[in-house]
Amino acid sequence: MRPKKTATIGEYLIQRLHAHGVRHVFGIPGDYVLGFYEQLLHSPLQTINTCDEQGAGFAADAYARVKGLGAVCITYCVGGLKVANPIAGAFAEKSPVIVISGAPGVKEREKNPLLHHKVRDFDTQKKVFEQFTVAATVLDNPQTAFQEIDRVINAVLRYKRPGYIELPRDMVAVTGHPHYQASAVVETSNPLTLKAALADAAEMINAARQPVIIADVELHRFGLQKELLKLAEKTNIPVASTLLGKSVIGEQHPFYLGVYEGAMGREEVRRYVEASDCVILLGAFLTDINLGVFTARLDPGRSIYATSEKLTVRYRSYEETRFQDFLQGLVRAKLRRRKAGRWPHPAKLFPTVKVPAGAPVTVKRLFEHLNAFLKDDTVVVCDVGESLFGAADLYIRRGTEFLGPAYYASMGFAVPASIGVQMASPRSRPLVLVGDGAFQMTGMEISTALRYGLNPIVVVLNNRGYGTERPMQDGPYNDVQPWKYHRLPDVLGAGRGFLVNSEKELTDALAAAAEHTESFCIVEVMLDQNDHSPALQRLTERLAKKI
Ligand SMILES: Cc1ncc(C[n+]2csc(CCOP(=O)(O)OP(=O)(O)O)c2C)c(N)n1
Ligand SMILES: [Mg+2]
Q1: Which ligand 1 atom is at minimum distance from the Cα of 480?
Q2: Which has the closest alpha carbon to 15: 31, 38, 39, 47?
Q3: Does the beta carbon of 461 sit less than 6 angstroms from any atom of ligand 1?
Q4: Alpha carbon of 474 to ligand 1 centroid (Å)
Q5: Which of 147, 301, 426, 537 is most buried per CB count within 10 Å?
Q6: Contact by Cβ (8 Å): 435, 461
Q7: Banded model confidence at residue 352, pLDDT cuts 50, 70, 90
Q8: How far apart are CA 182 and CA 248, in angstroms?
Q9: What's the average model confidence in pLDDT over 433-445?
Q10: pLDDT tens across 304-317, in order?
């Protein structure tokens, strides 16, 4: 798309999104944003209309995680405040999403009339978004609008967190500053500090007996997976990931230990990591879930901690050092190559034990079967609950093929996120793992998948309620209305549904779903209410102690 000299504000926004690789915009129009939707229609960007704005927010978040930038476009307040939750999640988990909200025109705002959708003041919505975006603007001045668009997009790309652009409806078709030149922000590390940090880190790594890398989500976000592999291969230092960073490295890789999550994760991974005298944390979020509800034992005195926000080597911290420069520097640094050591590898999690075909499905067996079912083009998209905890042990074949809200943990993520995933990566087929409770929140977005010709396989883990919460504290508030999830194709007029009560039905359903590629499949798996994955049992025991 060639930039136009006399672009309107709306056109310029579209040009810049396109220039940064965005091809799809998720959302729902309203009168305050219809003018911009019309411009989108005549642009190379495709709009994806979801059933609900929350779905659009999750889809844009997932799109951003896969493609590097996502966009959601909604109307003022009624739409905007519905994307507040997914955008808060994108902020918390570092996903670069641009929120574009229509709004009353600048002229309409004079004398402060009570226009529809206004909550309190005209800037109420902007104030809300300022809490969970790295830059927010109202494009109310044609002289500065282009500059503001670039400022927000640059901040989003720099911090990998959401940004907010409010577009008053009478500004969409106004021409912006004709002589404005977009300038790329070039940020660099302070070379002397970087050099000192690298020397410090290299000395510590070289002196270590058993160094280990913990690779987390920022490596995905900053596209540094190749550097991670180079570092591991060059030094023979093994790599563990976290739940949020899962699939940052292909899990069949010989350097891969598994997911480290304190006492919640596999014991041999915990032991190996915690016995290390040099833990190299790369792009890591030290969250409660990532750290197995703070059961992880990581000593700062034995750690190198590098993220986009801070860099410390033991207790020394280094300012003005970019995360990517530090990692690239480590790859080039003089690091001792170790003898290939012996470290744990993820266990082969396959249903090797034969059980009677009619045996009911347990959570453990479900994940074993799913593991065997994963193909090279499968992207696993998890929702909160058993889906996420059980999936920690799935064996993800290649990089960036696992998405889950493993920190913010908002239910309702997975089904809409799968739309973003498949739009960003059309050759993939999402495998959605979602609890019945979460499905009741955003599962109708399966209709959006159908509308746009996508073909996710949605596995609904039906344990009749909020299973995750039952071991902590149970009551009727953890029940949900039983639905016949597998009958959804009847309602939507397409797709295939399967009801699974036994192992045999599970393997048959998965095989049939693999064959049925023309539209979505929904596999409803009946589980015992009191059956939990081992990881969840450990987690809830620890959480219950904190209530
Ligand atoms: C939007 C939202 N509301 C409430 C919660 C609190 N919560 C955490 S897990 C959970 C139950 C999830 O139920 P379901 O989706 O059926 O999965 P299960 O735990 O049964 O595997 C709830 C209500 C949440 N995380 N997100
Ligand atoms: Mg449930």
Answers
A1: 16
A2: 39
A3: yes
A4: 13
A5: 147
A6: yes
A7: low
A8: 33
A9: 98
A10: 999 999 999 999 99
In a 13 Å sphere around the CA of 59, the CA atoms on its Cβ side amount to: 32
The label of the residue with tokens 């300038």 reads 183
Residues 6+ apart with CB under 8 A from 159: 94, 96, 134, 308
For residues 163 and 97, give the distance between their C-alpha atoms in angstroms, rounded to a whole number: 6
Indicate the residue type of 9: I
* Look-up of token digits 């967190």: 161
What single-letter amino acid sits at 107? K
478 vs 437: CA distance, rounded Å? 9
Q: How far apart are the first and last CA of the chain?
A: 55
How many whole angstroms from 82 Cα to the centroid of ligand 1?
19
Atom of ligand 1 nearest to the CA of 85: 1
Beta-strand pair 303-306/378-382: unpaired
Tell me the C-alpha distance between 518 and 454, whole Å. Answer: 8
Phi, psi of 509 (to 5 degrees): -65, -45
Confidence band (pLDDT; 50, 70, 90) for 400?
low
Supply the residue whose CA is at minimum distance from atom 17 of ligand 1. Answer: 435
**Mean pLDDT for the chain?**
92
Tracing tokens 């996508």 back to the chain, one arrives at 454
CA torsion, ordered 248, 250, 251, 256, to nearest 10 deg? -70
Using CA atoms, how far apart are residues 81 and 310, in angstroms rounded to an integer?
A: 32
Q: Which of 382, 460, 464, 468 to mutate to test the pocket of ligand 1 (most atoms within 8 A of CB)?
A: 468
Strand partners, 312: 305, 317
Most confident listed range (105-114, 277-286, 470-479, 487-496): 487-496
Cα(20)–Cα(67) distance, integer angstroms: 10
Q: By the 8 A CB rule, do 426 and 66 touch?
A: no
The verdict on pTM exceeding 0.85 is yes
Ligand nearest the Cα of residue 478 is 1
Rg of the chain's alpha carbons, rounded to an integer?
A: 24
- Which residue type does 118 have? K
d(CA 500, CA 503): 8
The candidate with the shortest Cα–Cα distance to 221, out of 125, 332, 134, is: 134
Site of tokens 């480290």 = 260
Question: Quick one: DSSP state of residue 175?
Answer: B
**Number of alpha helices (DSSP H) and beta strands (DSSP E) in the chain:** 19, 19
Query: Nearest-5° angle of CA 470, CA 542, CA 473?
Result: 25
**Cα angle 216, 222, 225; round to 5:** 60
Mutate which of 436, 460, 466 to test ligand 1's pocket (most atoms within 8 Å of Cβ)? 466
Place of tokens 């943990």: 409
Q: Is the CB of 384 under 6 A from ligand 1?
A: yes
Scan for tokens 């599970």, then name that residue: 506
Region label for 98, one of left (φ > 0), alpha (ψ between -120 and 50) or beta (otherwise)? beta
Distance from C-alpha of 108 to C-alpha of 497, rounded to nearest angstrom: 50
Across residues 119-128, what is the average pLDDT? Answer: 94
